[in-house]
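Continuing the batch. This is chain 6 of the set; chains 1 through 5 are on the previous pages. Same settings as before, nothing changed between runs. Recording input and output for traceability.
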Amino acid sequence: MTNTIERLNPSDLPDAGQVGYSQISIAEPGRLAFVSGQVAWTADGGAVPGSIAEQTKVVVANLDRALQAIGAGTADIVQMRIYVVDLDSETQGQAMGPLLAFLDGARPSLTGIGVSALAGPDPKIEIEMVVRLPD
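Output for chain 6:
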């Protein structure tokens, strides 16, 4: 069984590949991991940074640790959902830099969702993933 995820950006849909994600991700049958939404909380209980960009760096570090725990990498991410408090072009721009650096060329299907609040007063961004586990 192959371990690849096919990424598609059909010509009759907006080219999401230009901004770092795919419109469609097709995963071969296999085991999937559903990673709970990660916010800018650390295992040692450190303070949550104030900016979206700094929070995103903590969030992607948590996501990376989750991937390591299941023996997967960013190329194995099938889908991501990103929840941002007061999502607009400015907050989106602040989050995308650290997120794209984390993805390192992987282009999972991605959905950005604007919300009024997350789990507590400090978190401003939360990211969850669906990951196809490597064979």
